[in-house]
Amino acid sequence: MEYAQEMANGAPNNRCLPGGTNTLKKLNQILSKDTKSLDDNFGPTINEQILFIDEDVCIGCAKCIPKCPVDAIIGAPNKLHHIDSTTCTGCELCVEPCPVDCIHIKEVAIEATTKPRASSQERYNAKRQRTKNSKKKLTLDTEKNLAIANLYKNLTH
Pseudo-torsion of CA 29, 30, 34, 39, nearest 10°? Predict the structure, then answer.
């Protein structure tokens, strides 16, 4: 979030562990740098993964739905929920609010996460617009995400 602004002001570009070495290479290109390795003091790398809901355990509380930044969770209060594997980025933001621990991680091949992660900004923007229009509170601070969103857009194009 603030990291994109920090990079624009000269901070090292090797602290985006969730993006891994592919993101580091793209940042090197964008910023005309030759940083060789990630600084793993800044958090874990997100593995190639998607999440799924154990439908036998889900109680339909819907606490996970507003936490998903890309609208990958399908469901409504008091109804069974499902995570769309074609849009899930594996971010794990939906795991913590689940009161019955029915959301689990499934490791997948890199091909399964490439498209969802590449389109995540567009899906996030669509959710932001939808929730803004319906006057629902969005759980992410969009002001702080603007700089990183623009940086991410440059990485994916």
Answer: -120
Q: Are 155 and 23 in contact (CB under 8 A)?
A: yes
Read out DSSP for 63-106?
A: SSGGG-TT--EE--TTS--EE-TTT-----TTTTT-TT--EEEE
pTM over 0.70: no
Of the pLDDT bands very low, low, confident and very high (cuts 50, 70, 90), residue 88 is very high
Nearest alpha carbon to residue 104 among 45, 144, 64: 64
Q: How far apart are CA 109 and CA 47, in angstroms?
A: 10
3-state secondary structure of 45: coil
Q: What are the structural domains of the chain?
A: 1-45 (no CATH), 47-156 (3.30.70.20)
110-136 exposure pattern, b = at least 16 Cβ within 10 A, e = fewer: eebbeebbebbbebbeebbeeeeeeee
